[in-house]
Amino acid sequence: MAGSIRLRGEEVLGAGPERLRRLRAIDAALISQDALSGLNPVVRVAEQVAEAARAADPALVPGAAMRAARAMLDAVDSHLPCHEPLS
């Protein structure tokens, strides 16, 4: 394999799983062009955000992940219902 992938000057190609997890949680993210198309309309928004938080930090327990998700949604003033599906 040839080439290089750098994030803030750090070589990422070949990094181990734990390093990649930290980079994804802190420095990198996927932002969909249409954010609502990235959400499952039958699952609560907060649950989906909590799931992403737990993927970034497997040590995060479900209750703490849900509290973090609600805080994140409140911080961006999302106006999305945290407790109800989108549909």
Give an overview in words.
The protein is mainly α and 87 residues long. It folds into two domains: 1-30, no CATH class; 33-87, no CATH class. It is 41% helix and 5% strand. It has three helices and two strands. The chain has a two-stranded antiparallel sheet with strand order 1-2. α2 (45-56) crosses α3. The radius of gyration is 15 Å and the shape is globular. The N and C termini lie far apart (45 Å). One of its GO terms (molecular function) is ATP binding. InterPro entries: P-loop_NTPase (IPR027417). This is ABC-type oligopeptide transporter, ATP-binding protein. It comes from Frigidibacter mobilis. Keywords: ATP-binding, Nucleotide-binding.
Summarize the model shown.
GO terms for molecular function: ATP binding. This protein is mainly alpha-helical and 87 residues long.
Count of domains: 2
> Biggest sheet, open or closed, and with what strands and sense?
2 strands, antiparallel
* Straight-line distance between termini: 45 Å
Computed Rg: 15 Å
How many helices in DSSP terms?
3
Structural class: mainly alpha
Strand order of the largest sheet: 1-2
Global shape: globular
Mean pLDDT, rounded to whole units? Answer: 79
Flag low-confidence runs: none
Helix content: 40-55%
Into which percentage range does the β-strand content fall? Answer: under 5%
Oligomer: single chain
Write down the secondary-structure element order. Answer: EEHHH
What is the total tally of β strands? Answer: 2
Keywords: ATP-binding, Nucleotide-binding
GO molecular function: ATP binding
Organism: Frigidibacter mobilis
Protein name: ABC-type oligopeptide transporter, ATP-binding protein
